[in-house]
Design brief:
InterPro entries: Glyco_trans_1, Glyco_trans_4-like_N. GO terms for molecular function: glycosyltransferase activity. It comes from Pseudoduganella buxea. The longest helix has 17 residues. A seven-stranded parallel beta sheet has the order 3-2-1-4-5-6-7, sandwiched between helices. Helix content is 44%, strand content 14%. The protein starts with 5 loop residues before the first strand and ends with a helix. The protein has 373 residues and is an alpha/beta fold.
């Protein structure tokens, strides 16, 4: 280890286009942001990915495939995989024993805390892998204080080994995209500026069903004026909600579901043209879309549960996500009250300035230093 530059191995499996199909989930967004921002924070970053070498374009291959490395860990628990780094940062559950300190980011404890929302075929495996990851790590990063208690209760992590480092947003999002680019994206998808926007994988915990019900309960004049735009790929146990979205569209409702965008820039355009962002999630370890909406200057309605109030910090209208009436009432109030929208937009911009990926990298570097001192 040099005096000024830390050699950091960073797991980038979740950013590999050949493994993800080009769709980044929250962990992929986080991993890619660290890969980009950590060098500016004083780290020499070497990306590593699990997967067939021919499929990897971001990270160099790990010495062993994850399944083989896990079996080796079980059969020979005293062995350590040699790494040419000062510290390895695992951003997901794929952790093997190494001859250097390991930092693990554990994003949430969803499969244990709420198994009813997870794919039953993979739930047991993910629980086991995350529990092992927690035990192998020398230090753990959580994104919110809320998550600390879950990691302690569900994975047995020593609270003294946990640091809180929030997620963030690209600083470019703080500047409005070009109007012509926004207009082109809206035209491509048949949208009119001012819509209600929701972003997230279609799965039970994202609560899109109640959001749809709340929207359909709004006065017809509001629905005619403002579309409901849902951006997100189908996830586990999403069939019922997708069917309800389709039924609403067949009945002529102003509902648009975008399950795939042609570029990440288009997502910025969709935020920039939204009138209100609605995030009724039942459970979050953080909630990156909220910060993206803040940075885009969009007023936010967000759930009042789990980690979300910690992220919004008073800059959003908070609602009970289990109450369709509460969600609908907040949507109606936002639609009708321009002054309220302006206040929420201004408060969100201030909050976004505190939650950039550059700040995430700076705080992550401080965690590395504390371990290697």
């Amino acid at each position: 280890m040099t005096a000024s530059l830390l050699r950091i191995g960073l797991s980038t499996t979740t950013t590999e286009p050949g493994l993800t199909g080009g769709r980044l989930d929250g962990i992929g967004v986080y991993s890619r942001a660290l890969l980009r921002e950590l060098p500016g924070a004083g780290c020499a970053v070497q990306p590593y990915s699990f997967g067939p070498p021919a499929a990897l374009t971001v990270g160099r291959p790990m010495p062993r495939q994850f399944a083989l490395a896990t079996l080796a860990d079980l059969a020979l628990p005293g062995t350590r995989q040699h790494m040419e780094v000062d510290l390895f940062h695992a951003t997901d559950y794929r952790i093997v024993r190494m001859d250097c300190p390991i930092v693990a980011t554990l994003h949430d404890a969803l499969p244990i805390a709420h198994p009813e929302w997870c794919n039953p075929r993979l739930r047991g495996l993910k629980n086991w892998l995350q529990a092992k990851a927690a035990r192998k790590a020398d230090h753990v990063i959580a994104h919110t204080r809320y998550t600390i208690r879950e990691l302690v209760d569900c994975f047995g992590v020593d609270e003294r080994k946990i640091s809180v480092v929030p997620c963030g947003v690209d600083e470019a999002w703080l500047e409005a995209p070009a109007p012509d680019a926004i207009a082109a994206t809206l035209k491509e998808h048949g949208l009119r500026a001012g819509y209600f926007l929701a972003v997230g994988t279609i799965q039970p915990r994202k609560n899109m069903g109640r959001l749809l019900e709340a929207y359909l309960g709004l006065p017809a004049s509001i629905r005619a004026q403002r579309q409901l735009v849902i951006v997100g790929a189908p996830g586990a146990r999403s069939e019922e909600v997708i069917a309800r979205i389709g039924a609403a569209r067949q009945h002529g409702e102003n509902v648009v579901w975008l399950d795939r965008l042609t570029s990440g820039e288009q997502l910025r355009h969709l935020y920039a043209a939204a009138g209100v962002f609605v995030f009724p999630s039942l459970y979050e370890g953080f909630g990156i879309p909220v910060v993206e909406a803040f940075a885009s200057g969009v007023p936010v309605i967000a759930s009042n549960t789990t980690s979300v109030p910690e992220v919004t910090a008073g800059a959003a209208i908070e609602v009970d996500p289990l109450s369709v009436a509460a969600i609908g009432s907040a949507m109606l109030e936002m639609a009708r009250d321009e002054a309220l929208r302006e206040r929420c937009s201004a408060a969100g911009k201030v909050r976004a300035l505190q939650l950039t990926w550059r700040e995430t990298a700076r705080k992550t570097h401080a965690v590395y230093r504390s371990i290697l001192k």
